[in-house]
């Protein structure tokens, strides 16, 4: 142990991180480059739509419902300090569609989908199914990665839109039952206040998060270590990476969209 | 003809292949024997390009396997993986017919299914198995489905990684006959890994024994008993005592 040992360790960590960022970037580029080149696998794509989209609806719906309700309560409590309780519908809506809908939706889908993609593809890797695909003249990137990535990019914005709506409904339920709002006023305030780009920006975020969600699952699955432990580690890394990247991308996109 | 010249492969500090030289003439059946963990599976995967050798050359009909059109190259091969490597999200017949449903010469579903069922029959599996999922089958049945998948598109070169491991003696006999038949009647080139000496004698034209990362001995199967190589003798007679250490 010398004095410089911690420095060397730190340096190695940074280098490792840069190297894996590079590998992920190259992988992402490869996947994207395969999207437009045949062969295409419609059956895999539809299956991915079902797995990523349809089966995520309950978890996204519940998350949004409770979040919308809590948000309305908080805004009411906070607004009361300035006598601004009337802002509950508009601020709940904007908070939901710009931030919480996409971010919480993205994180919940990452927990559900990134983990299952990583575990499935990781298992395929350790049981040589990916090698078998290759020997059967099928490119694993085209067959496994592209359908999932494309499905996620298309489907997560839809989940975000559903989550937005349910979240706003959650705020509305709390608003009229507990905070004494009039139902039609609440709805009118929400609808009149929201602008197209409030919702649109959230959907664009959803598409970006969808890309991250599927890409991290596929990448870590395909690079899984050997055995059950390898698959476990791959799954864990995939979910952690997806979550962190979603939050980072959210910050960047928010800056780009609204940072001026 | 497949030709390996001085092929090396290490995984980290584990130097598995240390200069393998081997020739498999077209239309012959080569059997690879050797202790567990000596790199037999790695050798097959190197030829297919699933494992990239550190050095050395592997050629198919004089063409370096790492160059040229990968798709055209792989289209000539069939491979039975040691663990079966069946796609567990697909039904048995879809596994067997997988290659037939890909690419430019894609067959219609009914036709592909009929071929799959015919291949399943050849490995001793009944038609009703076709609609099951791999996870619903026994280990030996999965192995045979893998075998059916390897031969489904009638490739000219077929690799079998332990085709009879886990099968009962009668079924082993059926599979040995099938492999022999594929070579003699269809003129395929086969490379088989096996630990089963009955299989070796039934399948092989030539035998190569891998030991210490090299081909320790190679020759016609008839020479197997005649050779006085102590490694080969110990191996084929399954003796615990001899030059091959039993703790590896
Ligand atoms: N992908 C890999 N990563 C790291 N090591 C590997 C990998 N594949 C094989 N090895 C190592 O290479 C060595 C040879 O493995 P291989 O599977 O070729 O053995 P084998 O001769 O087929 O044995 P068996 O008869 O038991 O199947 C083993 O020590 C194994 O741990
Ligand atoms: Mg092996």
Structural write-up:
- The complex is a heterodimer of chains A (260) and B (248).
- With 260 residues, chain A is mainly alpha-helical.
- Chain A has one domain (50-255).
- Chain A is built from 9 helices and no strands.
- Chain A has helices at residues 5-35, 42-52, 57-80, 88-126, 129-135, 140-177, 183-193, 196-222, 227-258.
- In chain A, α3 packs across α6, α4 crosses α7 (183-193) and α4 runs antiparallel to α9 (227-258).
- Chain B is α/β, with parallel strands linked by helices.
- Chain B has a domain at 1-73 and 197-248: P-loop containing nucleotide triphosphate hydrolases (Rossmann fold, 3-Layer(aba) Sandwich), CATH 3.40.50.
- In chain B, 33% of the residues lie in helices and 25% in strands.
- Chain B contains 9 helices and 10 strands.
- Chain B has helices at 40-48, 70-74, 92-96, 109-122, 139-151, 169-186, 197-203, 223-226, 230-237; strands at residues 2-11, 14-24, 29-34, 55-60, 63-64, 77-80, 157-161, 189-193, 206-211, 214-220.
- In chain B, the strands form 2 sheets. A 6-stranded mixed beta sheet of chain B has the order 6-7-8-3-9-10, with helices on both faces. Chain B has a 4-stranded antiparallel beta sheet with strand order 2-1-4-5, covered by helices on one side.
- In chain B, β4 (55-60) and β5 (63-64) form a beta hairpin.
- In chain B, α4 (109-122) crosses α5 (139-151).
- The interface between A and B is medium-sized, with 13 and 21 residues.
- Magnesium ion binds at residues 40-41, 82, 161 of chain B.
